[in-house]
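Revision sheet: structure tokens.
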Amino acid sequence: MRVARFSLNGEPKYGIVDGPELVVLKGHPLVQGYDTTGERVPLKDVKLLAPTIPSKIVCIGKNYADHVAEMGREVNPEPTVFFKPSSAIIGPGDSIVLPVQSSRVELEAELAIVIGQITKGVTEAKALEHVWGFTIANDVTARDLQATDDQWARSKGFDTFCPLGPWIETEFTPDGQVVESRIDGETKQQASIDLMLHNVPKIISYVSQNMTLLPGDVILTGTPAGISQISAGQIVECEIEGIGTLINPVI
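Predicted:
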């Protein structure tokens, strides 16, 4: 099931994607379940929003060996954890804004986990039971600032640096699907999620051993090789089999 968050008459709502239409829900699915209003609206007539506004965005770095190699870094035995602020989130079709502070901004297409319940100290065996679903993220990064700053907060945290969407797929099971990114139609990244050094259950378990995850929280799972600079006027696409395509212009 694909759950979308969208704007209808200026008001944010949730709906279930049913072909070219959205079945409107009465409220937030994690609070009020999937009861519907009985209303249907065409997808083409609404503005899709980021599918969740989390209390925190937890990111896993250096999780594909080929990406670690292209960055000239070493693989860590444990997941590398950092954060992006929720103010960095934008939705499908929203513009990635290049900051004046950076001369090299790059894309990073990633599978994103959306947590469905309070999660603390969960085991790997039980981890997927705590997932609401999965979506697509672009971990936009000011690469030059990442290299010069002592930590990654600024380079990863600019406004518009976390596109999410286009919706949450609740029936997605991570199993070899391909993560792909394109700039103006040219493929830049393309790799199976099975190449993750730390898989989805391990990531959820590891993060939950160190902090409490709340419903709606997002975990970005890392990006494969092929990170590429983006420039104003370009169109960036991030696609994952079984979920869809997240498209954002760059300005």
